[in-house]
Predict the structure.
Amino acid sequence: MAANKDPELPDYSGATVPSYAATSNAQPTAKTEHKYALETKGREWLFIHVKSRAPANASLPYFVEADIIEGSVELNLDKPESVKGVTIQILAGATSVGQEEFIFLDLKQDLWPTGSEKGGKLDKGKHAWSFSFTLPTKVEAPTDMKGKITIEAPPSFSERASPAYIDYRIVATVKRGALKPNQTLTKSFAYMPLVQPDPPSKLRQMAYKDGTELLGPEIDIDGWKVLQPVKVKGKLFDAKEVEIECTLALAKPLAYVIGAPVPLFLTLKSDDEVALDTVSNPNAIKMHLVRSIALGSDAMEERTERRSNTFFQAGVGQAYFWPAMEGGKEPGKRVLRGEVEVKKSIKPSFMFPRFTTRYTMDLLPFSITGFAPDKKPTALLSEPVKIVSKHIPGIVPRSYAPPGYKKPVESDYNAAVGYLENGNQRFYHRGGFA
């Protein structure tokens, strides 16, 4: 994480729903006040005041699982007016391009009149009512069978060119008489469920705490998932057929926190030393964190075959590697350490009816001058992983890249695997929330 950055708070960028930094507990030390107004004929008269975790009042309000949303609604009338009622709502809905939004969260409070009060005419001047909502951890979402399921509330999701959106918002409504339309003030906010991974191995916990090197899979057996080796065949310098065995190890557990680096271990073996030297160049190794969005009635089902118009993949991060300090170069063998940064702009994994987001770590064929792989540009290895939002208290992963290490320029994952050619990236454009 960047220096002097509060890990409780999200980063914000552009007009989309802000990106999220991982959090470590449910309540911040301070809250930011936001104020929004509805203007009529050049005069502001309806206001929402709300407190959130956002870093500044100009940022989108930000809340996490089980937070209490507190604030007030204010009317400033320039003359007495007839009003049937004033309400405040917390609404959340999901939609995909070309489909109507379905609402899965609707919390409502009648602010005026209440109790012994009677609706009717409000005097000129200011009127204010406070409100308080506790965000639920679970919501009811409709299914295709015209039923409902209870499921964890998903995170906010809004990106430019995204095929689907999840919008949380605060809505203040002033109800008028039969001949006058109601007037509403709506403001979207960002929401994050809190999910933390299982603890890493004791040896990795000690390394994070003491600032010592991570031990590899040969020593820290509990700390790594070693994938089945895969053999890559290709032609070296357009002349010689060679074969290279790749063994990838991912840090366990396979649940990674937003904003933190993921440790990797890559072992390459071959009888050809020149081939090993060629493909062990860090620039030759193309490994990506890949996000998959599944839409439609089967979105929550685990399946390998999906229709291209309801399944969207994109690279959201590329691994970088460097030679291991010890045992990095032996006859017939090269060992590299690596990391992939889970960027703060990445949304966590979630399962939701008709809209589910998953992640995999994909190792693509080597790409470097002098080596031409036989395999088409599809993943050599693809391992499902989970992206989560909350650090384990006291355990914060850190980067082990060598001092002064310059990360290679990220390549375009979508172009590398040919998605632009095969039509699997049929994204639509929609602007983010204001």
